[in-house]
Amino acid sequence: MSKLVVFSFLGGDLNQGFPVVTAQLWCHNQFVPVKLTGSLPPAPELSELYRRWQLLYAAVHQRLGSNHRIKVHSQDITNISVNDFNEVCQQLQANINAWLKFESFQNIERQLRTLLSRNDEIRVIIETNIVLLHRLPWHLWHFFEDYPKAELALSNHEYESPQLLQKSPTGKVKILAILGNRVGIDIDKDASVLQGLTDGKTTFLIEPTRQTLDEHLWNHDWDILFFAGHSTSLTDGEIGEICINQTESLTISQLKNGLKAAIRRGLKLAIFNSCDGIGLGRNLADLNIPQMIVMREGVPDLIAQEFVKNFLTAFADSKQFYLAVREARERLQGLENEFPCASWLPVIYQNPTTVPTTWQEICGNFADTKFVGEVSTKGKIATPKFKLWTVLLSTLIVAISTVGLRYLGIFEKIELQSFDQMLRLRPQEEPDPRLIIVEITEKNIQSRQEMTKGLKSISDSTLAKLLNKIQKYQPRVIGLDIYRDLADPPKKSNPIELPTELNKNNVVVVCKSRDRKYDPQGVKPPKDVPVERQGFTDAIQDPDGIVRRQILMMAQEPSSTCTTPYSLSLQLVTRYLSYENIKPKFNEDYVQFGSKVFKRLKPSRSGAYQQGVDLGGNQILVNYRNTDYQRVSIDEVLSDQFDRKSFKDKVVIVGVTANTVSDTWSTPYSTAQQDYQEISGVFIQAQMVSQVLSAVLDKRPILWVLPYWGDILWICGWSVVGSLIIWWVRSLSHQRCAIFVTVVILYGVCAIALLKQGLWLPFIPSAFAVVASGVVVVFIQRRQEVFPISQPLVE
């Protein structure tokens, strides 16, 4: 947002000091400024220091052979060096900043800094009638280093708003280019820059007579006045003079009537790309021209050419006037090895009553009043639009409302559904070769008579035989996803005992945590199996009944019979990766294997989980594989009807898949099946193990979400996008298409982020914000078309 700061130096000079210095801060649409008052002490050394700098500047440039647009005289100083000049430059900068650090003035600066932001566009105007203050290089003040979008302008004490006549738009920037006395200098490159302006219509007066120049000022409408040639400031900067040809030189007062007529007819900007223009700026400011650019001292040809090229390029490319000047000025610094202090030369003169013009406004020939509207790229005034601040305000309201609705959990269900839908966009994946499931099917249960009816899916003796058989084929780890809290009565004829098989180091057994609310009993692990080889299998369902999260670790209740803090999946992964020399690092906020970090979902709010969801423990999202897993039945293992190599170096998970056992769950993939069918818990465990192994060993994405503030910024950002697109599009049908296309693009971005990087972005709230912002902007636009409002732009 553009801001204006006007410093007024009243009732003093550098020798006496300034007993009163005022600063006025004007913000957008603010009718009364913030006014601050301070003072500055005498600084007579600045006068002498600047005089010495002037002489050294002229001498150094003459010695270096610089081709100036005014003849320099350096007879006052001889035998100088560039080092001497650089030292004076540093002294001048140091003295200016030391002077401005006077406590009373510092109070002004401190208060201003509390009201300004580093990203603000700031116009700083120094208002004074003292010539030396106009000559000082104010841009060396440290303030301008801290505010990269601030630029300096100068003004006289007295000014008034120019009285402008109404003009019809032409679609072109009309430029009167005066190419004056060119003896000893090259101004043809200035002309070529003007000729290259696409939206410019330049009329060249080459070394004109006074009469010709005066007639062009009186009889034509001009937007920009440009002068290149020789110029100077007389009587110590009080009077500016230009050399219009090789025999005639004119002061501004000699062109006064013609210039006033040109200003009244719409002249908005004067550029004097010539030497020593302080006098020109002061004299033209008295005529109330909106703004000017002049050169502080003598300017070499190359510097003048580079400045005008860079300024007009930036200005015509929609950059704000002050920012275009600052950019063009600062770019001159790269030439200062050859042309010292080149970036000190350009300076703006500004009428404080006018708002700086833009290239687009000049194309539309706007006068001193701007209307709430837009200017097309061809310069024609289009259908009025409300201002950008209105768009941003409506965007802010929509974004805050959207975040509030999400906070209340309004979007939770549909967000989870869209997450599932994006996951299902992935192509079919290959089965994880590191896992195999030994399943106990309904057929296996019915065919085995030794089971204890109603209590177990498989007897202890059969389970012992199964584990013994699997161990022969050298798996890395066996996960027993079968509760074994009660032992069968011992049989004397059984040569293989289950406790013996369960006590082997690569076997992990399961238990279930006690929960006072949902499961006050829990399930204890098999007797005599140490806690180091136990893992809990507690599953967590979202409100819609789908398993999307897994718990890696959690603290157990003190009275729970299941005491292990680690899940079955984490125990299996840890033992498998130990063979790869990958050791885990456990923390209450993450689990790490090698370089892969599995960060927990934040307990308060994470992603779509905003209300009523328990995110306790170390929970992560499950990155399901769209595939089945290699599996064999218990009968095939016991009868050796399987590939014996299929168990070697793998994770073997033993579990029940029988329909009569109530261990089935819904996943994002099962809900999409036409014949809806839940899957057994052992397959969920396999998915959980596989996702961690694949992330660590195959660099498969880990699913994660942005922090809470990141989600807010994302939603607000898309709300802004939706508003701005509709703000620029005029046709209602085009606006509808624009909203639709924006939402499609948003969906594509979110889907790609999820599938490629594992990042779950808030698509539904963002899409809601885009649509809502667009609808609000359309509503305001349509209302404005019924009740149009025109108002001056106050900054």
What does this structure look like?
The chain starts with a strand and ends in a 9-residue tail after the last helix. Helix 18 packs parallel to helix 20 (681-698). A hairpin with a 4-residue loop joins strand 9 (231-234) and strand 10. The chain contains 23 helices and 29 strands. It is elongated and about 125 Å long.
Global structural class: alpha/beta
Bin the helical content.
25-40%
| Net shape | elongated
Question: How far from one another are the termini?
Answer: 9 Å
Overall radius of gyration: 40 Å
Q: Note the beta-strand portion.
A: 15-25%
What count of helical segments does DSSP give?
23
How would you sum up this structure in a few lines?
The protein is α/β, with parallel strands linked by helices and 795 residues long. The chain has 23 helices and 29 strands.
Overview features:
795 residues; alpha/beta; 11-stranded mixed β-sheet; 6-stranded parallel β-sheet; disordered C terminus
Topology record:
Blueprint (H helix, E strand, L loop, with lengths): L1 E9 L7 E9 L7 E7 L3 H20 L18 H18 L3 H13 L5 E7 L3 H5 L7 H4 L3 E6 L17 E7 L8 H8 L4 E7 L3 H10 L4 E5 L2 E4 L4 E5 L5 E3 L4 H9 L4 E5 L4 H8 L5 E5 L5 H16 L4 H11 L14 E5 L8 H5 L24 H20 L4 H12 L11 E6 L1 H6 L12 H12 L5 E5 L16 H5 L4 E5 L22 E3 L12 E5 L14 H11 L5 E3 L3 E4 L2 E4 L18 E4 L9 E3 H5 L12 E6 L7 E2 L13 E2 H18 L5 E2 L2 H21 L3 H26 L1 E2 L2 H24 L9
Parallel strand pairs: 1-4, 4-5, 5-14, 6-7, 6-8, 8-12, 12-13, 15-24, 15-25, 16-17, 16-25, 17-18, 28-29
Antiparallel strand pairs: 1-2, 2-3, 9-10, 10-11, 13-14, 19-23, 20-21, 21-22, 26-27
